[in-house]
Amino acid sequence: MDPLDAPGRVAEENPDAPGSTRRVAFVDSGLGLLGYADALHALRPDLGLVLALDPDNMPYGPRTPEDVQRLILASARATLPFEPDAIVVACNTASVHGLEALRAELEPDVPVIGTVPAIRPAAVAGGPVAVWATAATTSSAYLRGLVDAFASDVETHAVAALGLAEAIEAGDDAAIDDSIAYAAEHTPAGVRSLVLGCTHYGLVAERIVAAVGEDVTVFDSPVAVARQTLRRIGLSPDAAAPEGGVDGVLLSGRTGSLPESWRAYPAGERLLRAAAGRHTLST
Fold it and tell me: For the region Disordered, what residue ranges are annotated (predicted)?
């Protein structure tokens, strides 16, 4: 089953209910969740957002599956005092190793939505297809399974974007450009579709497009995940809904605040604007 598709609680939409606040929590080791929270905010700006990062333990890629599962369970549990209507696991590694355990613990009360690289729509659009991902993901059975399931008849290449997630996390522009240039150099000529296989990469999508050329279509999954999240909680997109914002930021389970460093990325800038003037709840 696609990690985005699973049964669970569907709340009835009642936007006129007095005093009601709908919230969605996002969990990831780091900044990869920004693009996903931003996409949901664009579709339903009235939803409160809870952003749970894990700076003490990132990155998750080199960790064992058991360790990743333990950490993502801890991050998700830390969001529960905010009473989220759903939790989005905005990390491919955590979705692979922790989604089943999260759903077993939290559903049907709290729907859990995972993330997967957008290989299926890229394959439909036509190959050859390249998948940029971390070194651990490019060599994983998980990625091979996705390619076998959704792109078995399309020429597909896994490309390790070495150091890109770490550079994005650090906000190191020179290192970001170096990592993008390395991955672009190792992307076979003639590729028509490029899948971003790490949730961090979408934060620098414009720079990736500039490196690979406009003839290559870049596929990412934040909008698809946002739409699936709305379906799971019984809401429809409404970009004109009253402005909500960020209700909470958690850093390895501790209450934190939105750092100004997020302004380095358009998604972070938009979330900071959404949070401006809004009282941030504490747990």
Answer: 1-21
Longest CA–CA separation in the chain, Å: 57
Task: List, in order of start, the domains of the chain with CATH numbers.
Answer: 23-115+223-275 (3.40.50.1860), 119-220 (3.40.50.1860)
Q: What whole-number distance in Å separates Cα of residue 154 and Cα of residue 128?
A: 6
Q: Which residues are catalytic?
A: 91, 198
Helix (H, G, I), strand (E, B) or coil at 79: helix
* H or E, element range at 150: helix 141-150
Tens of pLDDT, residues 198-239: 999 999 999 999 999 989 999 999 999 999 999 999 999 999
Confidence of residue 50 (pLDDT cuts 50, 70, 90): very high
User: Looking up tokens 């078995």, which residue turns up?
Assistant: 152
CB 248 within 8 A of CB 281: yes
Give yes or no for a contact between 72 and 193, defined as CB atoms under 8 angstroms apart. no
* Nearest-angstrom CA–CA distance, 182 and 167: 13
Which tokens belong to 218?
Answer: 């870049």
Residue with tokens 């698809």: 224
241-245, 262-266, 267-271, 277-281: which has the minimum mean pLDDT?
277-281
Phi and psi at residue 281, in whole multiples of 5°? -70, 150
